[in-house]
Amino acid sequence: MIAGFAELLERLAFTPRRGLKLAHMRQYFAATPDPDRGYALAALTDDLELRRVTPSLLRGLVAERVDAELFALSYDFVGDLAETIALIWPAPRQIDSPSLSELVRELQETPKTQLPARIIARLDHLPPSQRYAYLKLATGGLRVGVSARLARQAVADYGGLDLAEVEELWHGLFPPYESLFHWAENGPKPVSAARAPFRPVMLSTPTDLDDLTARDPADFMAEWKWDGIRVQAVSDHGTRRLYSRTGDDISGAFPDLLEALTVDGVIDGELLIRRGAQVAPFNDLQTRLGRKQVSAKMLASHPAALRAYDLLLLEGHDLRAEPLHKRRAALEALIPRLDPARIDLSPLLPLGDWDALAALRADPPDPVIEGVMIKHRDSPYLAGRIKGHWLKWKRDPMRVDAVLMYAQRGHGKRSGYYSDFTFGVWDAGQLVPVGKAYFGFTDAELKELDRFVRNNTTERFGPVRAVKPEKVVEVAFEGLNRSPRHKSGLAMRFPRIARIRDDKPAAEADHLETLMALLP
C-alpha cells in the first residue's frame, strides 16, 4: 500500500545514519509483498519508467484549489513543492488506500491529457503523508538521502546476498524485481539477460604523507588522478556499454568511445575529453554527460577518451583475482591493440620515496590532475574500499573568501533550515555569484547561518531569499573552469563552506580577478 511507502520515505528522510536507513529498507522489504516492494526499490534507484509530472503541472493544479497568496507563503516557508502541496491540499472527505503498484501503473498508462484529472482525484483521497509520497513518486525526486547503491545494499542485506553479485546482475533485472526478491528469500539466483554487465568497482581511501611514511614505497605503484569521471568500459561479444562507478549506464552519451572497444574485455579507467595529447577541463566533459544522443558537431568538438587504469576481464578470462602488477602487464599488452585516439594507458609515476612523490603531487604537469593514486602491487580487484590496497592523495583544495548572497531551504531533515547557499566575490564594486554550496558546515554552523538568513533577508524570490552582503565564508573547492552559464564566467568543482569568517568584513572578501588567476 502507498501508506507503507509513505512511512518508509518519511523514515529515510529523517534518518541521517546509513545503518538505520538500511534497517528501514530491510524492514520494508520484509513487510511488503510483491510487486509493491519492487516498485519501491525501483523508485529509490530511479529505475521507474514513469511519465514525469512537472512542477508547472503541479502548480497549475494547486492554483485550482488553494488561494495563490496562501500557497506562495506556504511554499516559501516549506521550501519543497511536493511537501507544500501535500500539506496545503484540502482535507479528503474519503480516504482511499491504493497499492503502490496500482499508482505506478496509473502514472505509466494514463494518457497525458487525462493525467491532471487523475492526479487531482488521487490527491483528493489521500492524507498528507501519502500525498507527499505520491507526488514524490510522480515527479521522480525522492531526495531521501538514499543512493541507488545503498538501496541495492539493503536488498543484499535483506537476503544475505553478496552486493557484488547483485550489482553484476542488476542490468539484467527490471521492476518490480520479483526474481531478485525470490532469490533473496532462498529462491534460485536469476540469470541476467543483459550482455556486458557492470562489475562493482574497487575504490580508494584517502591518505597523506604521515600515513604513507609508515609504508614501503617498493610495495606500491603510483599514477596521476585525473579530473574526469571513473568509468567501466565493457565489450561482450559485440555488446558494448559504458558505466559510471555506481553502475549507471551512460553509453548513449559516448558512442565514439564505444566504437573503440574492439576487444572483448572490461577496462577500468577515467573518462575524459581529450584533444590529441591535451586533456580538457572537466567542464568540457560535463557538456556530454547525461545526454541521450550526441550531435556530430559535439562528437567532433568534444571527443571522448578513456585513460585506462586496470583490466578486469580479457577475452573470457577473469583477471580480478590476479595481483595488480599482473593485471597491469595484461593491460599494457592490450592497449596497442586499441585506437590510441580513444583509449590510452595511464602512465606510472616514479616511486623511489614518498618525499619525491609529494613533490610531483605539489607540481603536476597538467592542471587537470587532481592528485595521485597509490596502489599496492599485489592487490586483487575487489569491490568497495579495501583498507591499505588503493590510496588517493589529492591536491590541497583551492580556497577563497566569499560573501553570502542568496539562501534556499534544504530538503528532508534540513527542510526547516536555510542550508543551500549562493556566494559571490567582488567585481568592479559589485558582488557576482561564483558558486553554490550546501555542505561543509557543522550542525551548529548551519543554525548560525540559518539565523543570519532569517534576520537579514532583503528580498524574496519564491523559496529563495536574498540577504544583506555581510556574511563572509571561506569556500574550499577542487577546481575551476570557465562557464558561460554563470554571470561570473566561472564554475567551481565541489565547492563547500570550509568555515565562517566572522573575523573578516565583507569588503575584504576576494575579487573575481583572484579566481581568474586560478584558471588552468
Task: Give your account of this protein's structure.
This protein is an alpha+beta fold and 520 residues long. It folds into three domains: 2-139, DNA ligase i, domain 1, CATH 1.10.3260; 202-394, D-amino Acid Aminotransferase, Chain A, domain 1 (2-Layer Sandwich); 398-516, OB fold (Dihydrolipoamide Acetyltransferase, E2P). Helix content is 34%, strand content 24%. The protein is built from 20 helices and 22 strands. The relative contact order is 0.09.
Summary?
The chain is an alpha+beta fold and 520 residues long.
Low-confidence spans: pLDDT under 50, at least 5 residues? Answer: none
CATH domain fold name of the largest domain: D-amino Acid Aminotransferase, Chain A, domain 1
Main β-sheet, in a few words?
A: 7 strands, mixed
**Radius of gyration from CA coordinates:** 25 Å
Cα-to-Cα separation, first versus last residue: 54 Å
CATH class of the largest domain: Alpha Beta
Percent range of helical residues: 25-40%
Output the number of helix runs: 20
